[in-house]
TrEMBL record:
It comes from Methylobacterium tardum. Residues 1-35 are annotated as: Disordered. This is Uncharacterized protein. Residues 1-11 have a biased composition (Low complexity).
Amino acid sequence: MPVRPVRGAAPRPDRRLGAMTGPDAATDPGSAPPPARYRLQCVVHRESASGIIIHDEPIFGLSEDAAVADAKARFAHLLAGRSGSAALRDAAGRVVWSTQQKASAGVPKPL
């Protein structure tokens, strides 16, 4: 005779790897998808012989909104009062966010 689950009992493993079931339909936190990888590509204008700095770095985010928020913060840090442009691309190469900013007046530029 099969045993019926008791209400409020701890979740029990499902037959599928990483899945959990139970009376409260709890899921295994280890089964969350890994963060998606995005590419932040920036061009920052500066006063020097070459005139620009080019940045291309990975951004990891659990959602597109989280990746965009991280990209905005990183771009603001890289600009440091200078002008430049940035684009955030997803794994397929599509632009999911882009911006262009002119230098801020009155903000000291780093040496």
